[in-house]
Design brief:
about 325 residues, alpha/beta, Rossmann fold, Ribonucleotide Reductase Protein R1, domain 1, 5-stranded antiparallel beta sheet, 9 helices, about 30% helix
Amino acid sequence: MKLEHLGWNSFFEENFKKLEDNALLYARVVRREKLRYLVIAEKGELTVKLPGRFYRQGKVPVVGDWVAVVGDRGKATLTIKELLPRKNKLSRKVAGVTTKEQVIAANIDYVFLVMALDSDFSLRRLERYLTLIFNCGATPVIILNKTDVCPEVDKYLQEIKKTASGVAVLPVCALNNTGLDQLASYLKPGKTVSFIGSSGVGKSTLVNRLLGFDYMKTKALRKDMNKGSHTTSHRELILLPGGAVVIDSPGMRELQLWGSKDDLRRGFDDIEELATSCRFRDCQHTTEPSCAVKEAAETGGLIKERLANYRKMKEEFEALARKRAEQARRKGKRRGK
């Protein structure tokens, strides 16, 4: 197998050369299996172990990472020696009150944000997903699945264009294998695509269709919700017949933000543009006079719900920044003792 088909490129090549160890083998993380990892290298899949120092240093590999492996293959003593620098990473805050980053996937080119045209669809949730994707630096592609149950696909397309200007939107039906040819331009050899979305939107069915056989397990259609359920609880890197790499993830029940309020600029560029005409440079778009953003919302030039979501997400980022600063202060205080 050619490493280029796994996503290997000059970025990783240069970082690997810096290790200056010809005995090392480079491989990409496929999935985590308890205390071990399944990785794939030029000669196929390997099971490797992760030394404890990685946990202590907070450098735990995730699906999509490239690692340098050392050991005797014949004696099954392969060990991860180094985690290569990441080109990018898709992250969110861990669920609950803990202030900690959870890396979903690493070294990705495109993120397929899958939403179903049934009760799952939400423009406000779409805005949250796009904020995380733009923060990652990968290119988002919105996949509107289950067009077979929606008689108003064009209406949804128009709504999304107002919310996600410039982002590709592909209506498909994975169940009937309709519209999947639109994905071909993104699924090129060496490209890595991460699938994300809520549970039951059809991510696993999409992956199965792209593979050409049922690899990912799905539950039967639930009549009350018009959706199937993803049954796996792990992330996994999968090679497609055409040479592309996809990373499938379990459905996200909770999408907490990670990053800073500056990450809102790309996903809410219309609001950022309007803000340049506000009277005050530090306008919060709440009670200030001569606020161009508020005026647009009142006159119909800006969707009020979109502005409300922008404010909410900005407050979340600010709260996150305060918690991280306090966490860093406490950590520094402990080290100073």
